[in-house]
Design brief:
The two termini are 22 Å apart. The protein is 32% helix and 30% strand. Helix 1 packs antiparallel against helix 2. It is globular and about 35 Å long. It is of the alpha+beta class. It is built from 2 helices and 4 strands. 18% of the residues are buried.
């Protein structure tokens, strides 16, 4: 049985920032830009946005029990693999 871990507040914000920096470093030459949007309203929902050279926007929504990918329509497989590995802690 898998137990759900909840991360909130400042701990979630720090975790998302670390993932953002790791993604930004790993994709430096592969994408146009990586942006971080932190929720400052206490909703515990933060966003990492990746703009790749195919003009696709990938958004990773990070919340207190995990994250969700919304892949751009033509995001390259190489970028998907790198991002998934980082978010999964590999």
């Amino acid at each position: 049985m898998t137990e759900t871990v909840t991360i909130k507040g400042e701990q979630l914000k720090r975790l998302v920032e670390m993932k953002f920096w790791e993604i930004e470093d790993a994709l430096e030459e592969l994408v146009e830009e990586v942006e971080l949007e932190l929720d400052e309203n206490g909703n515990d929902k933060h966003f990492i946005q990746i703009y790749d050279f195919t003009a696709s926007l990938t958004t990773i929504t990070c919340h207190e029990t995990g994250y969700h990918f919304h892949w751009g329509s033509s995001t390259p497989v190489e970028i998907k693999t790198i991002v998934e590995d980082i978010m999964d802690g590999e």
